[in-house]
Amino acid sequence: MHDTSRKEASVAAIEARGLSKHFGDVRAVDGIDLDVPRGMIFGILGPNGAGKTTLLRMLATLLPPDAGSAKVLGFDLKQSPHEIRGSIAMTGQFASLDEDLTGRENLILLARLWGFRGQAVKQRADDLLTAFDLADASAKQVKDYSGGMRRRLDIAASLVVTPGVLFLDEPTTGLDPMARKSVWRMIRSLSEAGVTILLTTQYLEEADQLAARIAVIDHGKKIAEGTSRELKAATGSGFLHLTLVDATRIEEAERLLEEITGSKVQRSSEGAALSLMVDTPQNANRGLAALIAANIELADFSMGAPSLDEVFFALTGHITENQPSPGEA
Amino acid sequence: MDNETATTSLIYADRPAQPSAVSNALVFGWRAVLKFKHVPEQLFDLVMTPIMFTLLFTFVFGGALSGSTAAYLQYFLPGILVQTVVFNSMYSGMGLSTDLGKGLFDRFRSLPIWSLSPFAGLMVGDILRHLIASLLILFIGILLGYRPEGGIIGVIEALLLLVVIGFGFGWIFLVLGLVMRTPSTVMTMAFTGIMPLVFASNIMVDPATMPGWLRVFVDVNPVSLMTTAMRGLMAGNATAAQLGAALIAPILLTITLAPLTLWLYRHK
User: With contact defined as beta carbons under 8 Å apart, do A315 and A216 qualify?
Assistant: First the structure.
């Protein structure tokens, strides 16, 4: 958990205390503390509506918090928002681009706003287009881009000047597996170059793959934080994964297993797969024996460390709403 | 993507010197000009209805209303310019609503730029739109036989007044653009509000034949006041009182709604 690539700088990238924001009666973010060291990819994991976007928008100075305080790269959110804006970049959940303009014009617009002049404007735009594999589409209007191209351009737009902290709000939501992998590669190479990245995701696999540390958020509260290994360990070492031959008997199996082992069973979103936390192999044995005695046939079973899916389930009591397409643990 | 090259070319830590507010505003103006290049269809939207109005009113009602189509066109054209500008002032509100919905303004707001510069860009777009639409309609009017007696100077003054009117009315739609969720709501609201203002005015007919209660409204309707001043300028006989009356609404709208727009923008 001690990130070796961390810079010597004594100031943390992000330091938040008790950040809160409510909309009417809804406590979108409810007293969140966050410490993100420099140079790290930090993941904020939670289902839809957990408050991830609101938290990010507050840290990116787009939304004033109702309570709490935060420092980004040492600058106070309330006192120095302009300084923060000078050293961060934010890529929102929906590609924040001008659809009528071409990809190149979008980047030129931002480069000029940052103060690039003359030849440097076009040079910077073209460098980014090349780096993000968009050189061929540079003269096309953004409305003709695919989802993956938009995402890449959107991230490129955040890098016109390399930010100290890059906020990425669900960077791969809605992308196909290929495009997702390419965005992941980009995020990793940015991190290797020393950019601190705070990303939100509802994909457990994404947090597992990218983030050195993960904060799990549900209903506006942080319910756990650690490395992916720590989170898995905190949930318990052993997980029993089962697949039934006959999907119609899944409820019977669920009831039996809960009775025998005393732990809550998580049903996968589709198919006849079940998983549950078991503290000892004996307990797992007893559960399996009970299923066999009840004549419930198993197509497959295995013992192993929990996936982040299961961690999330154990922490929140409900499964995430959107499962990642490629990541069946 | 090749990781090595990507990493090296991605990094650009030497931030250029911070540009001035004016420079930021000009960049947004450039964006507005690009929009004309990429979406030339919008010009069609801007002038189609007024051109149709001009043709229909002149040739269908003109003779009946003013004795001859030529006399009616002479009366109607300055008014249709006012109507066009008032209607077209909703476009920046719609654009703002689109940008907000797409999250584009989030990006602008997270940049270290003068926070009002995106609005300056909208204004540039507005002014261009008003000038282009007015010139096109004026051109068609002249083809049909309209003659501005105030000459070139009168026309230039009239165009300036139109830009001021568009600027003033634009604030209404910027506020709506910030408050409404979709651009089409902005448009619907605009039509509902503008229709009565435009029809219950002296744009199309002389209010002398209207019932007294309606004339009370028509005479103080800002659209009437602006139209009277426009007729004066284009005919070369505008009085200071007419001009003053025409400027009341744009000035009041700017004074009240500009601060509201900024407040909404900063607090949304």
Answer: yes
- Which residues in chain B are closer than 8 Å to A72, comparing Cβ atoms? none
Question: What six digits make up the tokens of B116?
Answer: 């009002």
Greater confidence, B158 or A281?
A: B158
Across residues B175-181, what is the average pLDDT? 88
The phi, psi pair for A237, rounded to 5°, reads: -80, -40
pLDDT digits (tens, 9 = 90+) for A44-57: 998 888 899 999 99
- B41 close contact with A: CB closer than 8 A: no
Q: How far apart are CA B54 and CA A194, in angstroms?
A: 63
Segment A105-123, tens digit of pLDDT = 999 999 999 999 989 999 9
- pLDDT value for A272: 81
Which amino acid is present at A20?
S
Q: Following CA atoms B10, B13, B19, B24 in sequence, which dihedral angle do they give, to the nearest 10 degrees? A: 30
Q: Are A156 and A184 in contact (CB under 8 A)?
A: no
Q: What is the ipTM of this complex?
A: 0.81
- Where does residue A26 fall: left (phi above 0), alpha (psi -120 to 50 degrees), or beta otherwise? beta
Highest-confidence range of A232-241, B115-124, B174-183, B224-233, by mean pLDDT?
Answer: B224-233
Residues near A318 by Cβ (< 8 Å), separated by ≥ 6? A47
Distance from B218 to chain A by nearest Cα, in Å?
41
Q: A67-72 and A165-169 as β-strands: parallel, antiparallel, unpaired?
A: unpaired
| All structural domains of chain B with their residue ranges | 19-267
- Identify the band that residue A4 occupies on the pLDDT scale cut at 50, 70 and 90: very low
Q: Is the dihedral of CA B144, B145, B150, B152 positive or negative?
A: positive
Sorted by where each starts, the structural domains of chain A and their CATH numbers stand as: 14-232 (3.40.50.300), 238-304 (3.30.70.100)
How far A138 CA sits from the closest chain B CA (Å)?
14
Q: Searching chain A, which residue's CA lies closest to the CA of residue B30?
A: A109
CA A239 to chain centre: 23
* Residues contacting residue A167 through CB under 8 Å, at least 6 positions apart: A56, A59, A60, A88, A89, A90, A91, A198, A199
Beta bridge partners of A300: A243
Q: Suggest the residue from B110, B117, B263 to mutate for an interface test with chain A (most A CBs closer than 10 A).
A: B110
Q: Which amino acid is at B126?
A: D
In order of A181, A322, B153, B247, the CA distances from B6 in angstroms are 15, 31, 58, 56
- pLDDT on residue A8: 42
Residues B173/B89, Cβ–Cβ less than 8 Å: yes
Whether residue A325 is predicted with pLDDT greater than 50 in this model: the reply is no
Residue in chain A lying closest to B29 (CA)? A109
Contacts of A171 in chain B (CB under 8 A): none
Chain B residues whose beta carbon lies within 8 Å of the beta carbon of residue A93? 103
**Consecutive H or E run containing A22:** strand A14-23
Contact A193 B112 (CB under 8 A): no
List pLDDT tens digits, range A243-267: 888 888 888 888 888 888 887 888 8
